[in-house]
Amino acid sequence: MSTFDRDEQNIHEALSQITVDAAGLAGQVKSRLNKKTSYSTPRWQSRWSLAAAMIITMSALLVITAAAATLGSFDWLIKKVNPSFGEIVELVEVYCEDQEIRMEVIGAQKYDNMAIVYLSLQDISGQKRLTKQTDFRDGFSVKMNPRTQKTDGQSTVEASSFGWGQKLLYFDEVTNTVYYEFNITTDSNSPLSDPLELSSFLIYFDERKYEYEPVSLSLSNLGEAETTPIQREYIFGGTNVPDDLSELTAILTPGHYAPMPHGEDDQWISNIGILDGKLHVQIGNAFNKEFGSSDASLFLMTLDGKLIECDYKLDFLSDEDHHLLNLEENSYDDAVYKYSEAVFTVNTEELGDYTLCFTGLVHSGVEGHWKVTTNLSDTSQQMRIWTTDISVEGHLFEHLTLSPLGLQVIGTYEGEECMASEMSLAVETVDGIISLGGGGGSYNSQKQSFNLHWNTETPLDVATVTAVIINGTRIPVE
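That's the DUF4179 domain-containing protein sequence above. Prediction below.
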């Protein structure tokens, strides 16, 4: 048997007598969630014993655990956050797990091509990897059902796209859980799948930003650098690349001159020195990595804080042995590292008066497979769809779909550029005018057509809508 000291024994005996009636507690918790509690600081406080303080803490944890179990994530979200579209979504509470990250769809609703989703991410590993900056970025995806189009007796699937607005609702540091609201819209020719399916293969945990961060590196007494001969075929890309590259015959030899200020192993100062009377600074990066350090932009800072940009920057690829790749002879699959060389025209005799600095990002995250599928009720009766041929400033609005989440429009335009997304949109209801925001979507320049949407800030009662107003032009709802 373990040996307890006196305080631990008191705690153990006190906790052994605690019983929690979860069923009875649920009602109390729900009612108290709606009550505001005021606190006042007494002029004096007696010191709690360690045992008493820990008993109270443990009791509080038991209450919180019982509340979470009895309320459920959906009820908890509605009580805690009161999200904008909470009244129209259905309870889902379906989750999946990978890489010890739980993705849960708490509640959702969809209207053909539009959906509102309340979703959470939780780190269940205990490492607390999630932050307020946690994001899906380009890993997020929704399943669509693209419609086919027949041309000359052959069926082709039309190209489709989707977009979403993402809002951080709440970050629970204790449970390391992030809660989001997703407002999703797909093209009209590609309705959302039934059942609704959301997935991701990337989750970004955090982002560190560096802006004009000094590099702890003296520029004094730099000499002629060791170089490696190159040809035009070695250049992978760059910034402000000179039109005439015939004089470019060598770059700095890749190496490992110094670490970057952020301390990440995937990026370093590869080499630095004078070449053809100019300052050359070369950065090495691990190539084609999803997370880690982004490309760095280099600057020189004068003693009075003035920033000097490089004349140009050139990018090169290398294999795992740091041998530069001739891109006409080698495959990109052979690339393991990328080197970027920035060139500055400054007085090389006065380099001690400058500080090298950089701007960049460092991302942390994880790759995995998260997918949640959920059946939702038929909402077609809550939508209004009609066709029209209303012309507004050279744009013909032909097909309109109105739902509690906003308006989708299909149309065509004249001229070289479509300006429909820049137009103001509002709906006229029996209770007044409601402005819509957004204007996102897609264009087809060959067909001179557009497929756009505008969103509401709160659920729209479609039955009360009498007209749509586009740049002042009133289109009656039929």
